[in-house]
Amino acid sequence: GHRRMKPRNARTVAAEVFETEAAAIRGLISQLDDSFDAAVARLNSNGSLDTTFSGDGRRKYKWGAGALSRAMAVIVLSNGKLVLAGFTGPEGGNMQVARIRPNGAPDTAFGTGGRTPIDFGGDDFGLAAARQPNGRIVIAGFSRPTLSNDPSTAVVARVRATGVVDPDFDGDGRKMLTGMAAARAVVVQPDRKILVAGNPPD
Questions:
Q1: 27, 75, 117, 189: least buried by Cβ within 10 Å?
Q2: Contact 28, 13 (CB under 8 A)
Q3: Model pLDDT, residue 66
Q4: Contact 83/74 with Cβ under 8 angstroms?
Q5: Is the peptide bond preceding residue 90 cis, with omega within 30 degrees of 0?
Q6: How far apart are CA 178 and CA 202, in angstroms?
Q7: Contacts of 24 (CB under 8 A, 6+ apart)
Q8: φ, ψ at 12 (rounded to 5°)
Q9: CA-based nearest residue to 178, from 157, 155, 149
Q10: Sorting pLDDT into bands at 50, 70 and 90, what band is 24?
Q11: Taking the mean position of all CA atoms in its chain, how far away is CA 128?
């Protein structure tokens, strides 16, 4: 079954359900003031909003001072916390990864104030995420030069379980994948190798 939600004074653009007992829904919400916040809702197994999450089962998050905060992927951890991956914008925005407590509050033990921006030097987008067995988070997406018609390049980043960008991954926690325009899916194989799928260059 499913439940259709219409947030107050907002329009849900995208949502996806996760977990069996309590589902995490990620999406983009457009507010009346034309700003965009990342939004998360959690459902009980019967489809009702889980009021133990932020009091009413839903919460919006603004990452930084930009007008746009968008969540594109969510990972549900075994302790009930959520990891979100996405981006900020509109121009010069960064890939973002955040961790949320089971009650909906940002987990301040992760990164700075619960989130970590990852800068590839352009307009940077996080589109997918995967968790390694050691707790490190891999985020995949793309970067393109700000205010330019130059093509985009697929990118992958990794952060430690604390939210710190992981220098064990390609020296600075970041990797640009030449020959691919955007990375749209990522999985960690049993041998710990990272498999990325996406779009070829235009």
A1: 189
A2: yes
A3: 73
A4: yes
A5: yes
A6: 12
A7: 17, 18, 40, 41, 42, 74, 76, 82
A8: -80, 125
A9: 155
A10: low
A11: 7
**Tokens found for residue 86:** 């996405």
pLDDT digits (tens, 9 = 90+) for 36-77: 889 899 999 888 999 999 999 999 999 887 778 999 999 999
Backbone φ and ψ for 179, nearest 5 degrees, come out as 95, -5
Q: What angle do CA 166, 72, 81 make, to 5 degrees?
A: 65
**DSSP for residue 111:** T
Report the half-sphere exposure of 115 (CA within 13 A, side-chain side).
21
Give the SS3 label for residue 89. Answer: strand
**E strands along the chain, which residues?**
11-12, 23-30, 36-43, 58-61, 68-76, 82-89, 95-100, 115-118, 123-131, 137-144, 153-159, 174-177, 182-188, 194-199
Let me know: does 50 contact 43? Beta carbons within 8 Å.
yes
Q: What are phi and psi of 180, to 5 degrees?
A: -130, 135
28 has pLDDT over 90: no
Q: Which residues contact 13 (CB under 8 A, 6 or more apart)?
A: 27, 28, 29, 30
Task: For residue 89, give Cα distances in angstroms to 50, 85, 146, 172, 198.
Answer: 30, 14, 11, 23, 22
